Fold this sequence. Notes:
Largest sheet: 5 strands, mixed
Order of helices and strands: HHHEEHEEEEHEHEHEEH
Number of helices: 8
Number of domains: 2
Structural class: alpha/beta
CATH class of the largest domain: Alpha Beta
Amino acid sequence: MPDARQDVASRGDKISEPLWPADDSSRAPKSDDAVAGSLIGSHGTTRDATWVVSWHDGPMAAPMHRETDADFATRLAIETGRILVGLRQQMFANGANQWDVKAAGDAAAQAFLEAELHTHRPDDAVLSEEEGQTDERRFHSDRVWIIDPLDGTREFSEPGREDWAVHVALWENGTFGAAAVSLPAIRAVFATNPAPSVPTVKRERPRLITSRNRAPYSAVLVAEGLDVDAVRLGSAGAKAMALLMGHADIYVHDGGMYQWDTAAPAAVAMAAGLHASRLDGSPLVYNNRDPWLPDFIVCRPELADPVLTAIWG
């Protein structure tokens, strides 16, 4: 594979052109914000679809009995999202700047998740974006919660954007024990149990989803090799869940990610029957000492071989 650091813009690839809309009936370009809205936020079936676990608007009291790990992950993703939605609305109403919104969101989400994990899973280790590697128990534990309290902080701080997420995953004895990803702005949560059912979608060409601010070189190779339509979206969780909702077919990334960026999205995607792997097709392995996990593929299973061939030849 050529050097992924190569300047993508110099290749003139289609990803750097104006974005295509989510609606295949038109090929007219759309703005980034319009694509984000059409891709995940404006579909009337999104909030009630059978592949979305029931969303709760009010506080969810922890049950008296011990929750299953799957139920616990789902509740944490929903409750954290509910807190973030309320905080965001209040801060925007008070005229807070984006930097303050980002900082407050990260802090509030981390505080809630930290308290819940300490109360209900005190013996489990935690790997979190906000805590980094401070919980060294994870190096010797069979159970590690890998969380991203607010994935897509930039999008969270921008009024009207819906492409931000909460990630909660349990890595247990070398595999995923449970996971959930919530998209709070559209009141949706996706979990490993019950696993989502990915809708059947017919398109003229595959749809590739990639980063808002840059096109990874691997995405360029896939775009050129498979003649895809390409759209941009923020948040790794939002991009991966767009595949589960049938709004995209391929998500590839290289050049910078951490374990908390992809753990929950990968777990939910694989539970739903999608392909998820490293860029070279090797399995995703979590709870390594170095939290850096720079590349990621999620796609429909029938596209896995074509995607890998487009990248590696």
